[in-house]
Specification:
Helix content is 65%, strand content 7%. It is mainly alpha-helical and 275 residues long. The radius of gyration is 24 Å and the shape is elongated. The structure holds retinal.
């Protein structure tokens, strides 16, 4: 007799898998991105117009500062229109349900466009500060390279799927940030005295403003992107406030001070302008 086909049964899963949990942008976040886009465009226009009233030889800060807000406009346009974003998924455990062996996957929306923005704009912000303090090319270059390593580490951290990847890159980014502070804030405090008391006072306040603000970024990253303790919308709102202070407000402060204070002028040689 022919062998009876063995009956196949669908095994009943003992554990019903939990679907992935998604954390993503909502209406508030979306609206915030468009508002910041508009603010960055307006600031770029304002800075460009301000540069027309000064001779080309005195426009270096204007050019750098306008490029900073133009870059931010492009990045905010990308994020607001739904580009420059991806989901970073990692296993998570639901501690509240007291089932430690049933993990679930958590996917959080990450706007990698931010890191592209920061990789371009934070070196330019450091260049503004370095020129103001009269920091030499060697220290400026080291600060810029440390800064790019910091931002790229943040990008890799944000794409990490394991705690080792995320917090490892985050730690590397924090060490790089210490080098940035060392080269610009500490070294700049020494070199700026040659430019007189007024420039020293301006640099001290601008550098303090900058590094207090900048230090908020890794803190926000740790709480929001690292530990997932805030919603994506809250994260967008906090970064929006920080970005407006670090770019348009910083720019206004620098350009108006530059206009009022002749000693802020930097002579970068004949290539920049012949006048
Ligand atoms: C990351 C994570 C890795 C560790 C550190 C970070 C610092 C980021 C900073 C960003 C500054 C951005 C600015 C934007 C301008 O609008 C990348 C968050 C240290 C300092 C000033």
């Amino acid at each position: 007799a022919a062998a009876k086909p063995t009956q196949t049964t669908t095994p009943i899963p003992t554990v019903i898998p939990t679907p992935p949990q998604f954390q993503e942008i909502g209406e508030t976040g979306h609206r915030t991105l468009w508002v910041v886009f508009a603010i960055m465009v307006l600031s770029s226009g304002l800075f460009a117009v301000m540069s027309w009233n000064v001779p080309i030889s005195k426009r270096l800060y204007h050019v750098i500062t306008t490029l900073i807000t133009i870059t931010a406009s492009l990045s905010y346009f990308a994020m607001a229109s739904g580009h420059a974003t991806s989901f970073s998924c990692s296993p998570a455990k639901d501690h509240h349900k007291h089932v430690p062996d049933v993990g679930y996957t958590e996917c959080r929306q990450v706007f990698w466009g931010r890191y592209v923005d920061w990789a371009i704009t934070t070196p330019l912000l450091l260049l503004d500060l370095s020129l103001l303090a009269g920091i030499d090319g060697a220290h400026t270059l080291m600060a810029v390279v440390a800064d790019v390593i910091m931002v790229l580490s943040g990008l890799f951290a944000s794409q990490g799927n394991t705690p080792t990847q995320r917090w490892g890159w985050y730690a590397i980014g924090c060490v790089s940030y210490l080098f940035v502070i060392w080269h610009v804030a500490l070294h700049g405090a020494r070199t700026v005295s040659a430019k007189g008391a007024s420039v020293t006072r301006l640099f001290s306040s601008l550098a303090l403003f900058t590094f207090v603000l900048w230090t908020a970024y890794p803190i926000v990253w740790g709480i929001a992107d690292g530990a997932h303790r805030t919603t994506v919308d809250t994260e967008i709102l906090i970064y929006a406030v920080l970005d407006i202070l670090a770019k348009p407000v910083f720019g206004l402060w620098l350009l108006f001070s530059h206009r009022a204070l002749a000693e802020t002028h930097v002579d970068v040689g004949g290539w920049w302008s012949h006048g």
